Amino acid sequence: MKRSLMIRIGLGSITFLFLALPCLVRAGQNDTPLDAKVKAFLEKARFGWGDMNVPESDGKRLYDLVLKNNYKKALEIGTSTGHSGIWIAWALSKTGGKLITIEIDERRHREAAANFKEAGLGDYIDARLGDAHQVVLDLKGPFDFVFSDADKEWYTNYAKAVIPKLEPGGCLASHNISGRRGSFGRGYGGGNGDYYEYMMSLPEFETSMAAPGSSLAVSFKKKG
Ligand SMILES: C[S@@+](CC[C@H](N)C(=O)[O-])C[C@H]1O[C@@H](n2cnc3c(N)ncnc32)[C@H](O)[C@@H]1O
């Protein structure tokens, strides 16, 4: 293929992405005042997330998971400045649920709390500052939705701590999973291969990648 044609296709794809992405949070006719407030916040914040926050596509996936399964008792491990928490809590505002989210870094925790308030979701979120290694053990539960997105090498330990507190039908979702052993290497993704294999080995769970190309793994606890 000619070089100029390839450049034009590349530029076209980038333009398409910039035009298509806003559709995820575009104002709709049936929006509640809270929907409008959350969408306005997400729109304003779109290009400002810079603390290892999930991409918008995964935020939308988390939102869909909670809403579709009518989850109400959610836990997030690794708040950062609150991008994923906003998507999860937005869905919980519709199911009548609440989110507990844990962050170890004080500056991120403070920024997340301010973002939750500005997005209008403060009442749906209990943001805790602390080391999730301990906080997760101390939390009683039960939970029906858990999103694991903190220190990757601890994922299996988090899973072992939350599984007994996860209701049948509940979901443990985890971010930055390759789905293939070793694909991330042992640096940033350290331990993820083991985590995914561990979840696949549990007969009481159905584990898969949320979508092709996504790094979100979902493990549903079987009902029976
Ligand atoms: C990938 S970021 C989370 C991004 C966030 N879920 C979002 O999408 O907005 C991981 C966060 O986990 C936090 N973290 C790492 N180890 C932790 C621990 N032991 N306890 C609580 N938070 C931790 C980090 O400080 C960081 O802010």
Verbal overview:
The chain is α/β, with parallel strands linked by helices and 224 residues long. The chain has a single domain, classed as Rossmann fold (3-Layer(aba) Sandwich). It contains 8 helices and 7 strands, in the order αααβαβαβαβαβαββ. The chain has a 7-stranded mixed β-sheet with strand order 3-2-1-4-5-7-6, with helices on both faces. Strand 4, helix 7 and strand 5 form a beta-alpha-beta unit. The longest helix has 18 residues. The protein is globular and about 45 Å long. It starts with a helix and ends with a strand. It binds S-adenosylmethionine. The site of S-adenosylmethionine has 22 residues, from helix 4, strand 2 and helix 6.
Number of domains: 1
CA-atom Rg in angstroms = 18 Å
Q: For the report, how would you describe the main beta sheet?
A: 7 strands, mixed
Strand order of the largest sheet: 3-2-1-4-5-7-6
Structural class: alpha/beta
Shape: globular
Approximately how much helix is present in the residues? 40-55%
User: What oligomeric state best describes the polypeptide chains here?
Assistant: single chain
Features:
binds S-adenosylmethionine; 224 residues; Rossmann fold; single chain; alpha/beta
Topology (elements, then pairings):
Elements: H1 3-20, H2 33-45, H3 56-68, E1 73-77, H4 83-95, E2 98-103, H5 106-118, E3 125-129, H6 132-138, E4 143-148, H7 155-162, E5 166-174, H8 192-201, E6 205-209, E7 217-221
Parallel strand pairs: 1-2, 1-4, 2-3, 4-5
Antiparallel strand pairs: 5-7, 6-7
Helix pairs in contact: 3-4, 6-7
Bound molecules: S-adenosylmethionine (SAM).
